[in-house]
UniProtKB/TrEMBL annotation:
This is Carbohydrate ABC transporter permease. It is a multi-pass membrane protein. It is found in: Cell membrane. It comes from the Bacteria.
Amino acid sequence: MSARSFKLTQKTVLTVVMLLLSLLSVMPFIWMLSASFKPTAEVFEFPVRLIPKTFIWDNYTTVWFARFQTYFLNSVKVSVVSVVGEVITSALAGYAFAKIKFKGREPAFVMYIATLMFPHQMLLVPRFVLYRLMGLYNSLWALMLPGIFSAFGTFLFRQFFTTIPDELMEAAKLDGCNHFKTFTKIILPLSMPVVSTLVIFSFVGSWNNYENALVFLSNKDKFTIPLGLLQFQTEEQTNYGAIMAASVLSLLPIFVIFLSLQKYFIEGIATAGLKG
């Protein structure tokens, strides 16, 4: 076998293996989609039937009119505010740490990044007490505020901004631009890859946030989707078909966000950590 034939065979085998692994990874989603069109009695039938005998749309109508639209809207509000706030604060902080020289910049950055070492769970009780005192308990702001500030997002922006030549800032300064104009007119337009990366990470994290919703919300009208899914489970029975339908609906915004930004997301992953 020639070297060229061997490389072609090796590439073919690798492609087949990766295809099989990809199919294996998406099988739970395919099963979830299939189960969303089945009655509860057929969800766990064996052998597994991926194509339902009869497609039942009642699961989707039942879910949508059983307060799911309220949970969906609450999740949209929380996610949008958290994402927009996190991108703005992280971009500004990242710019300051990367491009503005001030005393104590590096120690401050190290201490800020060090907060990533603290588990999220250890902050739940202090936040609960603080939000009760501030009157934010059982409001969507209790979910929005923690997501607006992010050490991870600041790290991403800082690493990306260090790859931008300082000559651009010097040229902008000669043209009479202050830091704010330089940031908004020059630096930020070049930062779409890292912006898209943070938007995806932030949106997914906020959309799927279960712990904060469980601790800080008690009114069902304020529930987000992760808590709302539990409402289809009672002591007597669990409507698995409805849960699967709600899960499918809850994934649609994530797919839309990722497909819309995947080009910049891949570029951001490839470049955000090149220099630091």
